[in-house]
Amino acid sequence: MITILSVRRPVASPSLSDKADQKKYEDLVNELFNGKRKVIGNYNFNEIVDVLGIPPDFEVHDSSVNVAWIHRSIKNGHIYFVSNQIKEPVNVECIFRVKNGNAAEIWKPETGEIKKTSYSFSKDNRVMLKLHFQPEEAYFVVFREMGNTLGDSYVSINKAGGRAERRILPLPELKIKSAQFGIFKIKLKNLVDVTQTIRGKVKNNGLSVLSQNHLGGDSAPGNPKTLWVEYRQEGKTLNAFAPVNKWIEIAPSEKRLEILRAMYGILPADLNDIPQYDSIDISNKVKRLVKNGQLKFKPIDILKDEIRDELPRQVKISYLADGEEGVIVADLNELVHLPFEAWRSLHPFPELKYREGKQYVMVWESGQYELEKGNGSSYKVRIDNVPEEKAVNGDWQVYFPGVTNIGKPVVFNDLYSYTSNKDENIKYFSGTASYNKEIYIPDESFSEGLVIWLDLGRVECIAEITLNGKRLETLWKEPYRINITDFVTPGMNKLSVDVTNLLVNRLIGDEQYPENNKFNWNTITQYPAWLDDSSLKPESPRQTFSVVKLWQQDDRLIESGLLGPVVLKYSKLIAVD
After folding, report:
1. For 10-34, what is the mean pLDDT?
2. Which domains does the chain carry?
3. 128-140 per-position pLDDT tens digit
4. Are 482 and 475 in contact (CB under 8 A)?
5. What is the DSSP letter of 427?
6. What is the pLDDT of residues 425-465, one digit of tens each?
7. φ and ψ at 459, to 5 degrees?
8. Mean pLDDT score, 247-266
9. In Å, what is the CA distance from 444 to each residue of 303, 393, 449, 451, 482?
10. Structure pTM?
């Protein structure tokens, strides 16, 4: 029997050339819809596959985890690309709609590493894999139709009594200042909300802005678009419009200019169809969640009674974490993740590894562990003598090119952001600074099976590590952690960490000084002569040159540098039968 999926019964061919064959067309429709074929209509896609009894292609049952995925079938196999969407390490069971008899591999695009892995089966005979993700990590899971070459291997490992985790620093003091539910960003088809962007371009109660895609992207490719700005001045609410490549000009004034709404794209015939910003207070609801330790949630789960219509709405949460202000804006089905610095408070999860046909476990703390096979049987093992992690304390010698004299570093007694430094050359520094110190590795760290790791904690943004004169890896994302076992010796070891940050702070720093060039608002009007002849370049404390001003002198600086905490971690690798 053939199954036909249809939203509704078709009434006519869309082709004008088929008018003469309308009777033949109707006969075919009657044959399909009135015959022995199964027709499913008036369902959305999820309902259709449910009616057909087709299980999901990929599934994660842990609602606190958000894993994005895509699946591609290839000859004799399947490729899944899976991506952890949260800034937290997770250990999650994933279910794949793949038949038995496939060998499973994990392909790491960052390093090119390919490792085999074992799996078990769900009740409906889909493959279940226990996957370990670092914060925002992504990789490929590849299934090959070549038989499960690992046989009856272990498929998961857990620390007895729960996940292997231990806080090494207290969680930040978290205080919810306010929480609202409403419309904070207008979402309509073929339109993009550019209100915040336009508000940032107001100067002296005036506005000069060019209508172009740079405001918020191309919301309607191939179609003419318009910039609409609704504003209030002198008690009047007014509108300004500009097609693509035209300007909206509102002359500077002594009267306050307030931008109410601004949209870019294909405007509706009636501007009243564009919703107003509105909100209701939900602070108490969110504060109760935090009090109960629930720092991850989906707004839809706590706001079902407050949803009044089908307009796209969001939650906006303002908070203080260790005195630092922050704001989160999330859609109803988006996972809200209040800050708790997971990367510095959790041990890595225990892992199963394969080497030369043998299966190993790698753990990060002593204790009892439970290993499980695909058939459901389990085995417990006690692993001891995993050293406690050790903080790398003491002074750092930091060299800033162009700031510190050659051979004369700045001494950092502890680790902090450049933006906290009183020296403006360091506060606004952009480039590569070199952190140097000696670290002590005790003899007992070199016991059989132990692996020594250097964990830099938080880095803004890129770190290049050199140990005892040998350049190691470049680390550009969390976790900023590297295996240093083969590059250190018992006793003192010379460590150098070159940290490169973004250019933003230098651009903001240069805005503290007078401008040497002519600008019309934020765009240069005439290129300086010194671009052709460097001898004409005037003396100036400015260190950068840009034809467009993207940053202002009072913009917030971005934290930069090696922020830590820097620790030595230890893991233990042992073979299992």
Report:
1. 77
2. 3-51 (no CATH), 58-159 (2.60.40.1180), 174-182+279-340 (no CATH), 185-271 (2.60.40), 390-505+558-574 (2.60.120.260)
3. 888 988 888 999 9
4. yes
5. H
6. 999 999 999 999 999 999 999 988 899 999 998 899 999 99
7. -130, 135
8. 94
9. 55, 20, 12, 11, 19
10. 0.69
